[in-house]
Amino acid sequence: MKDVVSSCPIEEAMRVLSGRWPTLLLYYLKDGTKRFSDLRRDNPTVSHRILALELRKLEEAGIVRRTAHAGYPLRVDYDLTAAGRKLVPLIDALGDWWEATEDDRAGRVSSAPRLVAAE
Fold this sequence. Notes:
By secondary structure, the protein is mainly alpha-helical. The chain contains 7 helices and 3 strands.
């Protein structure tokens, strides 16, 4: 991961949570423990490698707990830690905000002036 440039807690949080997958993974884990294969099914466009890297990043940050069970094939479960569960209201609020502002975004797109190329 990149080094933190300042001592701002927002910068540190965004370093862990930014990108396409971390918040989606938290969203899918908020309902309980999931296996790696379940998370792949929930996010079909993420590659195996990227999913593993993102889960490892969240685990290192203390947000996700990884539990490997002995046996063949190896079964790995992921769930939120206490720190990860504290993020659930933020994830839910973000989704609520998006839904609440949907009409505003739709109105802005349809009433926005169109640019016409100069001839």
